[in-house]
Amino acid sequence: MNITAEENLMYKVMKAIYDSRIPISFKGSMVLKACLMEAGYSEETRHTVDIDANWNSETAPSAEQMIDSLQKAIRSEGMELEVRLYRMYGKGRSAGFELVDRSTEEILFTIDIDVNRPVPATRIYEVEGLCFCGVAPTQMIADKISVISTDKIFRRVKDVVDLYYLSKVFSFDKRLILEVLKNSERTVGNFYGFLYRTDDLRHSYDKFRFTGNVNKPPFEEVYSAVKIYIKDILPNDES
238 pLDDT exceeds 70? Predict the structure, then answer.
C-alpha cells in the first residue's frame, strides 16, 4: 500500500501529538489506512488530505490552549509548520485547524478535532516507525455502520467504501459492534437508503472521486461486499 508524501507528513504530525501527551486520539482515513496495513491489506486505498481526531479532557480547552499545545508538539519535532484555527468547536461542530508551511504560506492539510465527545475505544498503531493512538477497528466499523444506516449515507458514501476495505481483513461481530455503538452513544437507523435507494447511492458513488492512481472498484462490487459483510445487523427481512 502506497503512502503519499502528504500522508507521511501527517503521520509525523500525529506521532508528534501522541508523543506530547496531548489528550488526543485519532480517527478517520489516516487511522483506517494504518489499521488496514497492520492487518495485511496490500491494495491501494483512497487517499486523504486531512486528519480527524478526538480531544478528551476533564475541562473544555480554550482555542488558545489547543493552538499552543499543537504548535509546541509540532515544533518539538523540528517541523516548520504553523497551526491556525479557522473554526472553533461547538455543539455538533468540530474545531478546525490549518497546518501551514511557514516558508511558503501554503496550507498543507487540515485537522478536525471533536472535543469531549464520548471516549472511543482506542489502540496504538505504528506506520513506518511512527506511533500514534487511534480508534480501534471495532470503533471504526461501528461509526461507519451508524452513518450508512441513515440518509447520511448519500453525503458520506466514503463510509461505504471504507467498510468495503474493512470487510477484506476484519470479521463482523454484531454483538461487539452493538456494544461499541452503545458505549459511544451512537444509534443505528433502519438502513432504508442503503437497502432501497440503490440508484441514488450509485449516483453518490459515481460522483465520489478517488485521487491519484487509486483503483475505484465498480459500485456493484463494493455494494454487494458491504451488504454481505453487515448482513447480521440489517433488518431481518434483508439479512
Answer: no
